[in-house]
Amino acid sequence: MTLALPAVSLAQLGSALEASWRADTAYGGVHQAGNPALGQCYPTSRVVQWFFPRFEIAHGQVETGSATEAHFWNIDPAQDPAEHVDLSWQQFPAGAMVTGFVVLDRNTLNDSAPTGRRCRLLLDRVLHRLSIADAFRGDPAAT
User: Fold this and answer.
1) Which of 131, 96, 142, 95 is nearest to 19 (CA)?
2) Cα(92)–Cα(27) distance, rounded to whole angstroms?
């Protein structure tokens, strides 16, 4: 039996993600007061891909003015021009810019066990926040 993905808008998903971010879903457990998106880019991109399978994950570099940071977001390469969706961009200061990126192959992401746990934890929280946790459970690492 195949279950349909829940109908959720990107705006609804973005709100649910923001409300679900915690240090235990952030890369390296980072936390900074006033910056809940910090370190949330990869699990966020995986959850977006789970809800919107047409999106791929982009991995790039962001120049912040004081450092170059690795970053992940979503992209719909079938659009012309490609549609970029970045629900964790607010972690960067004003004036930050992407200096390059590649689109990852969803079949070769090979998430580590800790990364898979962070993605599943964030997905579970988002499903709960959207009140659909009991209706459907899934694994973002399986997309």
Assistant:
1) 131
2) 15
Query: What mean pLDDT is predicted for residues 90-97?
Result: 97
pTM check: above 0.70: yes
- Going through the chain in order, the beta strands assigned E by DSSP cover 56-63, 68-76, 83-85, 97-103
Residues 85 and 124: their CA atoms lie apart, in Å, by: 21
Which range of residues forms the domain containing residue 25?
10-133
Helix H or strand E segment including 138: none
Cis peptide before 81 (omega within 30 of 0): yes
- Residue 84 located in a structural domain: yes
With H, G, I as helix, E, B as strand and everything else as coil, classify residue 2: coil
Q: What is the domain count for the chain?
A: 1
Contact (CB, 8 A) for 61 and 98: yes
Q: Are 43 and 25 in contact (CB under 8 A)?
A: yes
76 lies in a domain? Answer: yes
Q: Is residue 4 part of a domain?
A: no
